[in-house]
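Batch job 17 of 40 flagged for manual review because the log was empty.
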Amino acid sequence: MDTLSYKTKSANKATVNKEWVLVDAEGQALGRLASKVAILLRGKHKPNFTPHVDCGDNVIVINAEKVNLTGKKWSDKEYLRHTGYPGGQRSLTARELFEKDPTRLIEKSVKGMLPKNKLGAALFRNLKVYVGAAHDHDAQKPKMINLNEFN
């Protein structure tokens, strides 16, 4: 007789069920969109979530140019980087970064919500962000998710 009837199942690379998910960023607040996308990438919405395994979905974000920022964040929010030389700190406001490339605004906010290790880098590779409604992943048959009804 099996005395231990409840066993904890840990997911691994072979047992993970990865899907393709399509998210529309139109009218979404940037931070709320990024946190929900990070949950999808990480796999925390699945019952077999395992912290050290990539068990999340592949996420496609469309309409990146239609994302919203509230308040004065367009002018006040700064993105810093450093060239590596003394005095080499550079900054861009959210508006300047958005005008250069709207996809980078979403990518930076989602990347900041993922783990800062090799797993986080692997999870970030599962994110695809596009300007406009067209994307290159029709062959994967992505499932559309309404973020307003998601968690």
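Reviewer: the log was empty due to a logging misconfiguration, but the result itself is present. The mean pLDDT is 94. Unflagging and moving on to job 18.
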